[in-house]
Amino acid sequence: MKKKLWENIARPNQLPPPGDWNVWLILAGRGFGKTRSAAEAIRKWAVSNQCRRIALIANTIQEARQVMVEGESGLLSISTEKEKLEFFPSRRLLRWSNGAIATLYGAEKYEQLRGPQFDAAWIDEFAKFQHPRETFEQLSFSLRLGKNPRAILTTTPRPIQFIKDLMARSDVVTVRGTSLENIDNLSQTFLKQLEYLKGTRLESQEIYAEIIEDRPNTLWSWEDIENCYKSPPHFIENIVIGVDPALTSGAGSNETGIIVAGKDGCGKGYVLDDLSISAPPEMWAARAVDAYNKYFAKLIVVEGNAGGELLSNLLHTIDNSIKLKIVYAHTSKTIRAEPVVILYQKKMIFHARQFHKLEMQMTTYEPKSRSPDRMDAMVWAMTELFNISDNSSMPTIFSI
Fold first, then answer.
1. What residues make up the domain containing 233?
2. Domain membership flag for residue 398
């Protein structure tokens, strides 16, 4: 079956932009078609003899091979039999029948770009590189063949300064796009997953390709969160359940924050699970007790400002054997959270995985914001694990 010409099926923002540019920066959401756009441009340049020496750069060599070369929208998949594109994995090399070649590189070893010369390059998922500026600068020195060497950068955006620097350059053309532009080619399973991201930072960044900036008055920065993912040890003995109960359970009520947190033998804290729920007291209480038993927790820590004795009776009615601690807020949410923020910054607290709604509260909460129930529950849990007093001064946590 004859393949349709890409130019006839591509959306306008998937084709190389007109004009005199050196870098085509495609900032777009997941599923937009970034890979196909770049692969088709590289293929056209190669088979038309416009480019003869091409660099293909991903975060790792494995990712370059899996996505840029062998992926569903990679160069091997979109090429025709007539072009006779060959791949030599051991040499990290692609070769077209006309002699044009493309070489694979991993950004973790960006200095390998120091020697070769190219007349074109494609960098994929640039925002996830550990050293994006250094990788791009090293490539720039190597793009010195031909009359008009060019680079294509495809990435889902993150608030990295160098991406903003690139967007400000006069020789860079930036194309923006969302996942939903390609909705006809996305699976129903993928589209259903998008529903769970509504209202989160990941929806803005991964679907709508927005560069999410930190708000000036928030406690946590996105950098704090992005640097806090780490798998916990297989066994953590010191686990508590933090609970911030909602005062009501009707429509529009706040959620009850239920956070499972632990501390390992090296003194590192972990958020292990977020079980927060909007439900009547008996339902959220049952969930908290279930988490206590499931994780073999030593304690449930509950904010008692809404009625400590009533909360104690509620939880002990479900399971009288649980160990319970009722805590009371004597200071503002901001003051209570500040010692925990410092622990994040000192890389003393990690997240076992992404907790989208919790992290959104952490990075957007301001004093006049809606009550951040998940964040409060997490703060109570970490306050207990790190033995932080509600009235403690900031320096005291450094001696923990």
1. 222-389
2. no
